[in-house]
Each structure stands twice: as C-alpha cells, then as structure tokens.
Inverse folding.
C-alpha cells in the first residue's frame, strides 16, 4: 500500500514540527510549511532521518493564492493529500482599546481563514478517494477566554465551529475533521509571551510560568508536544471514521474546572 501524505502548516517550529517528526517516524510523506528561515534544512533533516518523501513550501497563510499553489504542487507530486493538519498560528496580547487592527486581521487570517482555504483546496481529492483526515490545532482558548487575547480567542472559537461544520459535510465521504485543544505547550509562541509578561510584571520567567502561564491548568506542567502528536496519529487512522466533529482538550485539567 502506498504511503499516505500529510500536509502540516507551520511544521518547521513547535507543535507542528513535533507532529511532523512523529508522522515521519511512521513513514508518511510530508508536506512541510512554515516561515522559519531554515525551513528547508529542518524539513530535509527530518526527511533524511526517517527516509521519507517530502516537500517544503513556505506558503504564507495570509495569501490564499499561495495556499492553493502549495496544494496543487503537492497533489502533482503525491497524487492526493490524505491528511491536512491546520496548525500555523500566531498570538498577540493586548487590551482591546490598544489592540492593533492589523494584528487582529492577521490573527484571524492565519489562525482561522487559512484553514478554510486549505480545507476547500484539498476537499475534491479527498472526496473522490473516499478518505480524508483533517485536524485543526485549536487551543484551550477555543473553549475559554483569557483577558487581552481577543483576536486569538475569537479565531480559536471560530475554528471549532469550522471543525464541526466540516465534520458534518465530510461524513458521507469518510472525511473526518477534529480539533485538538492544547493547554500551554513550551514553544517559541509561548516563550515570547513569557518574556513579555516577565518585562510587564517585573517577574522572573520562572515566576511568570508558575504564577501566570500555568495558573489555569490543574497539572502545573507544560503539555508535551509528543502527546499532541500521538493524538493526531490516532485521529488519522483508517478505522477512526466515527471519531469526527470532536473537540479534544489536552490541557492539564484546565477544562475540568
Ligand atoms: P510556533 O511559533 O512554534 O509555530 C508556529 C508555526 O506557524 C511556525 O512554523 C510559523 O512559521 C508558522 N506561521 C506563523 N505565521 C505564518 C504564516 N503567516 N504563514 C505560514 N506559516 C506561519 O507556535 P506553536 O506554539 O507551535 O503553535 C502551533 C499552533 O498551536 C498554533 O495554532 C497555536 O495557536 C496552537 N497552540 C499553541 C499552544 C502553545 O501553548 N504553544 C497552545 C494551544 C494552541
């Protein structure tokens, strides 16, 4: 049987990179994406390490044309994208009256609208082969709000709505769609918040982690990337057809409160 192909946005850093490595270990073909300057080397190294086929496209989530081109070239190489993981995301933290309008627009475009464009672009091929697996990396902030994260919380709540709608439309064609909602994961996205908060509150990074960042989680530990990757592998299996439309928190008990 031919290896399946997975396209993972934002897969040259953090959670996306960890998911890519776990899929590479299982022999999937991978379409890498991300804006890291060393994206070519990062993807080539994983490809060499696990002896898999891969492509790397630095398509910018802000531009739908680039997303469609990435899908077109991936389909030309691999025949079909069997699995789509919408993971790319950014954050900006600011009170609403100072929230920059361009940051709002970019967060909605990158964290939400890009997922719509990519789902639309892969849909026809998934439908015609009667198999597709779509995972949206949402967040605990898709279920709960925090102050000063208006755009991020809106985008993440939005992607949960998109996940459920796509699950309903996909079920006649064995296309599943699920959202994973991590709590805090130690990645560059969170490292930036730790540094900002440390400066703002005049606290050490360690104090920011224990007193601010992990405050809402019952388990006072960052969520391991491997746990998210393992969940993604479960969601894409051949026999997971009835596991669809689910919103799955992996959040150290945040949503249990
Ligand atoms: P990260 O900063 O390590 O990685 C983000 C990736 O997205 C990078 O590869 C980056 O290049 C890419 N990206 C950003 N803007 C892009 C654009 N315009 N076009 C193309 N790629 C772009 O962050 P992360 O923590 O790994 O975040 C991954 C996802 O997980 C995001 O959707 C984030 O909201 C979500 N998430 C993160 C946490 C956390 O605590 N880190 C928690 C819950 C959800």
């Amino acid at each position: 049987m031919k290896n399946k192909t997975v396209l993972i946005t934002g897969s040259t850093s953090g959670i996306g990179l960890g998911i890519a490595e776990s899929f590479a270990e299982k022999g999937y073909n991978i379409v890498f994406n991300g804006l890291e300057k060393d994206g070519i080397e990062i993807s080539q190294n994983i490809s060499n390490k696990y002896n898999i086929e891969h492509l790397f496209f630095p398509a910018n989530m802000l531009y739908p044309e680039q997303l469609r081109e990435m899908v077109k070239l991936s389909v030309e190489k691999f025949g079909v994208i069997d699995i789509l993981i919408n993971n790319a995301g950014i954050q900006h933290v600011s009170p609403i009256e100072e929230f920059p309008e361009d940051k709002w627009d970019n967060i909605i475009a990158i964290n939400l609208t890009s997922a719509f464009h990519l789902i639309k672009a892969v849909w026809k091929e998934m439908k015609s082969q009667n198999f597709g697996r779509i995972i949206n990396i949402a967040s605990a902030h898709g279920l709960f709000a925090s102050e000063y994260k208006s755009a991020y919380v809106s985008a993440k709540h939005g992607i949960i709505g998109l996940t459920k709608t796509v699950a309903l439309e996909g079920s006649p064609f064995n296309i599943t769609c699920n959202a994973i909602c991590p709590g805090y994961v130690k990645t560059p996205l969170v490292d930036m918040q730790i540094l900002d908060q440390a400066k703002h509150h005049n606290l050490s990074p360690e104090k920011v982690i224990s007193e601010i960042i992990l405050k809402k989680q019952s388990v006072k530990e960052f969520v391991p990337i491997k746990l998210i990757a393992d969940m993604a592998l479960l969601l894409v299996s051949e026999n997971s057809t009835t596991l669809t439309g689910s919103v799955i928190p992996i959040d150290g008990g945040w949503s249990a409160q």
